[in-house]
Amino acid sequence: MAARKPGVTDVTSHSTPFSVKGKSAIVTGAGSGINFSFAGLLLAKGCNVLIADLSLRAEAQKLLSEYDGKGKPKAVFVKTDVTDWTQLERMFDVARHEFGSVDVICPGAGIYDPHWTNFWHPPGSPKSKDSPTSNRYTTLDINITHPIRTTQLAISQYLADNVSPSNPKRVVIISSIAGQASNLNTPLYVAAKHAMNGFIRSLGPLDARLGIRVNGVAPGVIKTPLWTEHPEKLSFLDEQQDAWATPEEVAVAMLRCVEEEGLGGGTVLEVGAGQTRVVEQFNDPGPSGRGIRLRILRGAMRRCLGGWGGGVGRKKAEAKL
């Protein structure tokens, strides 16, 4: 076995076997997409799931009907705005009432820089919903503050439930290949995912010390409504050259983060089309392969500047792109 670098703790050797069967989970954003697939996989494996989202797509509604707790795991829905901390607390209260305890938390709700909260549509511009007097960006509230606050609430709940290495609990966070990359089109999203990678790795030692494993996945280009229902984002993609990965592939990686003994706290799994790998903290080669890279169009940047306020300044910027 190769010697470890000084100051690096091997947390994997302390991992306690963990199965989601008979456990209970909270998954935010599970009304569609990756988080829906993860919720469905948990339920199929015998785990109760509280779905916290603003609304449910038809497939999520069907999941609720199928898993009613009668002879099988139970799925419940709590309408939740993840930017509201009171509502985040409420989902924990409901989960405890419905299930008795909570073992897995996935603050998975996220957005991919929509025009209404976007660096290239500054607060106060016509398309932006971010007020110039609010002192905040909604995209950061959803993609950074929500998973951080939910993880705080999870740790508090786990400590109250006497978590320990022999009574382990889990947190799974959704990062992105953007956590290692850069993208002029979506700088706030990239900043958020870099933040999540650092957050996941910083909490890694909790696995060995307390039995709270915080891991994450870094999906590539995943075929979800986040992409397919937004033509402005599909313009970044060349479907003849670029490959989609599936939400189901990401869900399997998320389950691995929860259950697999060798994936100790602080692990990030990158997921592409037909490929999953551990992202190293140092000297990682970076995202690559099918379902990872995009053919970004120069025209996308010009469209982004459409919200910059117009006028001569915008035209000069466009001319340089």
From TrEMBL:
GO cellular component: cytoplasm
GO molecular function: oxidoreductase activity
Domain of life of the organism encoding this protein: Eukaryota
UniProt cross-references to InterPro entries, sorted A to Z: NAD(P)-bd_dom_sf, Sc_DH/Rdtase_CS, SDR_fam
Repeat as UniProt keyword: no
Keywords carried by this UniProt record: NADP, Oxidoreductase
Keyword NADP applies: yes
SUPFAM superfamilies in the cross-refs: NAD(P)-binding Rossmann-fold domains
Gene3D superfamilies registered for this protein in UniProt: NAD(P)-binding Rossmann-like Domain (3.40.50.720)
Family: Belongs to the short-chain dehydrogenases/reductases (SDR) family.
Name this polypeptide is given: NAD(P)-binding protein
